[in-house]
Amino acid sequence: MKQFESFRLDAANGCLWRIDQQIALPPRPFMVLQYLVEHPGRLITHDELLDALWPDTFVQPQVLRTYVLELRKLLGDDIARPRFIQTIPKRGYCFVASVTDCTSDPRPMPHGSASAAHASGSVIVGRDQELERLEALLQQSSSGHRQLVFLAGEAGIGKTALLDSFLEGVVSPRSIPAARGQCVQGFGEKEEYYPVVEALAQLCASAAGDEARRVLARLAPAWLATVGPADPSSPGGSSERMPGDLCAALEEIAARQPLVLLLEDLHWADESTLNLISALARRRTRAQLMILATCGNGETAPDHPLRRIRHDLLLRQLCTEIALAPLNQTAVSQLLSRELKQEALPPALTAFVHQHSEGNPLFAISIVEHLIARRCLVRDASEPAAPWVARGSFEELDADVPDRLAQMIELEIECLTPDDQRILGAGSVMGIAFPAWAVAAALEQNIAEVEEACDRLARRLHFVERAGQDELPDGTRSEFFVFVHGLYREVLYQRQPAARRARCHLRIAKRLGELFAGCEATVAREMAMHYEAAADWQGAASALRIASGHARSRQAHTEAAHLLEHALRIAERLGEKERESELRAIHSELAAVREHEVVGAVPRQKSRLKNLTLSG
Q: How many CB atoms lie within 10 A of CB 183?
């Protein structure tokens, strides 16, 4: 474990601590921080960092800027007066803080009934802090201070699992009445108060149902009629469901005993349901009422009433929001042990799943199922208790998307407009990070309009984020964005027809050449990647030769040789007329590079022999 100031980097468990508090850090920024911390006090170039963290994969240097900005925000670092990460303009980064090794474990010991529930075999892992916070809020509501809690997070992050664990480990043991309603996509336009009615029906059917029915019959008979036959002895009243009547009834029920209402997927709720929740949060009557609602991070449009209501209630401190962060590597390991039913996991499995799932529990489980289906994880079928073992290396696996996740992502994408789908598809052609200028080039559209469209998508979607600006050689700037999950980028890329992808790659490659005219060598590898994806073999071979020359100018002869060897493989696909001359030129350049490698190796060998002689 590495320590710098009040922070501790726990590489074994893939997490960062500040004193005894864990800081949520997604896998990729963690990898960047870990490499910097493990090499303090020296310049880490962009190429070194990219090659170390993304070997054999082309990733734009702008991605590093995104992750470093995120790290600075988490560490409280100032780019003007850096305490941790110093930027060396145009070259790379240097970790300037003093780093020491430490062995103490910063993790606090579990305490409280929520942690105890988790330790005793609850259905959830890695959510101790969230469970303890929910328990504390429930305690406040039991004292008469009503609580509205928004549990926010992306699809698959574990919101429902957290609700289940909270009910099982905290609410049920205390015999607190709880009722649950599920918002359903599309129902908000057809049936008002759908999740509220479902929750009321559960409440009336529970052990506390008799009391709930009596209160509803007296104060909100129209609401009682929606969940079952009305009591003939109850006084008559309006047949219209009045929100104020239900608020009064729930407050009276919660005046005598605690009451927990759980409403899931509130981003699909109708506006009447949202206004009812808002009214319950704003009323001043003391009530032992806790409303716990789950909602997505970005499933709602900017003008959706849920955004407005959440923002207003948060500003007025009338609600609490708990955002679920991705699981760290330790929690992913616990999740895998639970799913595979074994403590000792195959080597490198946890790291592989954590990296590709980015800490999303649903994604992690789907990846494991995919590995089993592909026979990458196997066990002896003749022994029921036989452990799962890896067959081959995880690092050699293709980054294909599990079928279940691909279908889920496809459904999300299909909900977008055709224009939004085209923009995201063009962005996926560029890679994990995509500047607006590249999308505009791929689609042959106006860059300003594309930039505005990308910005709207980043505000609305949970899997796209605005990540800074790309400075171009002519001094202009272009906004660039990142896919939060590589799986979304892969689905968006693969769902496009091959011919469309090829056209986009070719347009981006040509635009790169135009933007960097006179200094093409700095982006030649990227141009080669796009030309190759577009099956433009001449363009790819020429760009690889330029990239090799750039590597030779930096004395990186091994890199230059690898680029030329790649160019040879590309040139073999040229037509007969162009192939012979191209191969001859590449072989000539490769011979010169290898000669420099040998010449450069002789002084190094002499230096080693001299050092051995002196030491002897």
A: 23
Q: Tokens 């191969």 correspond to what residue? A: 583
Q: What is the pLDDT of residue 459?
A: 84
Structure tokens at 380: 């002896």
**Domain spanning 127-229+241-323: which superfamily?**
P-loop containing nucleotide triphosphate hydrolases (3.40.50.300)
User: Which percentage of the chain shows pLDDT scores above 70?
Assistant: 87
How far apart (Å, rounded) are the C-alpha atoms in residues 78 and 75? 9
Residues 575 and 220: their CA atoms lie apart, in Å, by 81
Query: CA 569, 571, 574, 577 torsion: positive or negative?
Result: negative
Q: What are phi and psi of 147, to 5 degrees?
A: -130, 130
Region(s) of the chain under CATH 3.40.50.300: 127-229+241-323
- Sheet (strand 433-435) strand order: 433-435, 477-483, 464-471
CA-based angle 383:385:389, to the nearest 5? 85
Q: Is the pLDDT of residue 82 over 80?
A: yes
In the DSSP assignment, the letter for residue 101 is: E
Q: Taking the model in full, what pTM does it have?
A: 0.73
Buried b / exposed e over 103-123, threshold 16 CB at 10 Å, is: eeebeeeeeeebbebbeeebe
Instruction: Report the DSSP beta bridge partners of residue 18.
Output: 7, 21
Label residue 320 by pLDDT band (50, 70, 90): very high
2-101 classified as CATH 3.30.1330.30: no
Strands 477-483 vs 433-435: parallel, antiparallel or unpaired: antiparallel
Among residues 559, 544, 568, 545, the alpha carbon closest in space to that of 596 is found at: 559
Place of tokens 């960092």: 49
Instruction: State the CB neighbour count (10 A cutoff) for residue 616.
Output: 5
Alpha-helical (H) ranges within 304-402 are 305-315, 329-340, 349-357, 361-373
Report d(CA 176, CA 292) in Å as an integer.
14
- What tokens appear for 512 in the block? 């790169």
Angle at CA of residue 123, ends 118 and 126, nearest 5°: 55
Alpha helices in 398-556 (DSSP H): 403-414, 418-430, 436-443, 447-460, 486-494, 498-515, 524-533, 537-553
Amino acid residing at 65: R
Around 455, how many Cα atoms within 13 Å sit in the side-chain half-sphere?
A: 11
Rg (CA), the chain: 29
Tokens standing for 344?
A: 């000792």
Helix (H, G, I), strand (E, B) or coil at 370: helix
